[in-house]
Every structure is written in structure tokens, then in C-alpha cells.
Amino acid sequence: MEQYIALIQGYTALGLGIIIGLGAIGACIGIGIMGAKFLEAAARQPELIPVLQGRMFLLAGLIDAAFLIGVAIAMFFAFANPLLASLG
Amino acid sequence: MAGSSSEYIPHHLTHLKVGEGFWSVHADTLIMTSLLGIAFLWMFGSAARKATAGVPGKFQAFIELVVEFVDGQIKEVFSGDRSFLAPLALTIFVLVVFMNTMDLIPIDIPGMLAGAAGAHHWRVLPSADANTTFAMSITVLLLVIYYSFKAKGVGGFTHELFSAPFGNHPALWLPNFALNIVELLAKPVSLAMRLFGNMYAGELVFMLIALLGFAWAGALADGNILGFALGFIGQVLLTAAWAIFHVLIILLQGFIFMVLTIVYISMAHEHH
Question: Using alpha carbons only, what angle is made at residue B228 by residues B227 and B234, rounded to the nearest 5 degrees?
């Protein structure tokens, strides 16, 4: 019994690392590309900064969302693992 | 109150449930959402009743700022009649911001108050409950469907459902329809999961930081003054840092929910 629990916990921990790690990579690349383009556009046309800033924050939230959903699911599995419940 | 660090987080993630199985409701979520909704209505209602055309007070100026901000956001993407969309967007924005702001309350205070009132569990953050976020996003979906029918008529909307992305050909009706249904259903799911995921993760980070409390309490019990000081100062600094960063997320998530609602409803008005 105990080794089954350990097995599930081990695989879950690996899964959590992959979820958060890959999500973080994607979100960071996305934010990086968007931030670079924003700075480029702001340097080219400084008068557009107020318009672009609002949209940049909106997109930052959208880019972050998938990552944070992943973090939330990972955290859920870390603290209340539903896969362990089936062992009974 | 949870006794040990391993019980602390699962305890704080448990809702105050009323009822059994499928027909159970989360009383804490319902009560908090109702209270915040009343707070929103009272705040904006009293500002509207006391509004003067002369020099506005600070409170009125603040409310006007919010209302004009929301109205400006709608004007950018939607050119039609704003008499329904503007109040809807304002309600969504302020309610989501109010709900998310509950995350900034130190996480053990609501639990202690609820415990004093006899409840064993109390999650103070309604938007970290998927039921709340899905309720809001499904309402948005129903409004999108209603406005699609209203703007295009029953025939127009049905025609669009069956012929929109690929073209009007009997062989393409089924793929078109399947794609449109997926598109319609993806909207509420992404809207709800985005808010829920952000707030759930944010709440959990506060809880993880609060686990330091067990560490410094244990160090104090052992007489380890350095460990106590480091743990205590670390907890205060980490909580403050995360709370300050979280203010951005709180406002941003309300803003995103509002803007996407506006975009979806204005898309429902567009003809293909």
C-alpha cells in the first residue's frame, strides 16, 4: 500500500514540476516578445504609449492566464491529490 | 483552526458546504458574493443619489472616474447602444475587483471570525471558487447568445452558425456548426478558468507564505531566537511583497473579464 502511495506522490510531483516549468517557459517567452514589441513601438511613436500601455497589460494578463491556471491545478494536486483518493 | 502545517492548507481550501453530494452549495461563497454585491450597489447607488453638477467631492469624483473608465473602454470596441452594455461591464468590473480584493485580507482573520460564529470552514475569496467564476461566465455566454439572436434575428444567427467560417454549402454545414459550438463554449470556459486560476494560485501563495508561521512559532518554542526573527521578518516581507504584486493581478483580472465580455458581446452584434 505504502509504495503505491509513494509511487503516486512521486509521479504527481514530477507532473507538477513539468506543469509549472513548461508553463513558466511559455509565459516568459510570451511576455518577453510582447514587452520587446511594446518598447519598440513606444520608442518609435512615444505619443501612442497611453493607448499601447492598456493593451499591453490586457495581453500580459491573457498570456499569464494559461500559466496561472496551470499553477492553480498543480497546487491543487500538491495539496489535495484526488488521485490518492482512489486508493481508498 | 488547523493544528499542524500539513493540515493547514487543505483546511483553508475547504468550503463551508451546505447539503450533500451534487446538491450542495458553498455557503461561504454565496454569502461573500451577496455581501460584496450589496456593497457595490450601495456604494455606487449612494454616489449616484448624492451626485451634484457642481464641484464633486472626492467620493463622487472617484466613482465618476471608474464609470468613465469603463465607458471609455466600451466606446473603443463597440459603436452601438451602450445603455445595457455599460452597466453590465461596470458591474462585472467592480464585482470582480471587490471579490478579488478579499484576497488581501490576512488569510486567518476571516477564518477566526467565522470560527467564533460557529463555522468550521470559511473561504473568504469568492472568485477562487470555480462555481462563482463559471456562474459569471455562463451568464456572459447567455447574453452573447441573446444578443446574437437580437442583432441578427433567428434566421440570421442560425444561418451564421451553419455557414460562417467555411462557406454556405450543404456539405460544410456540419463542420461549420461544430466549429461554432466549440467557439461559443470556449468563451465561458476560458473566461472562468482564467479568473479562477489566477485567484486560486494567488490565494495558495498566501497560504504557503503563512506556513512560515509554523516555522517561527516552532523556533520560538525551541528558544531559537535567530530562527524566530528570520521566520517572522521573512513572513512579513514575503506577504507584503506578494500582496503588492497581487494588487496588480486583482485589478488586471477584473479589467480582463470586463474587456472580454465587451468584446464577446460586440462580436455578437457583428454580421459576417
Answer: 90
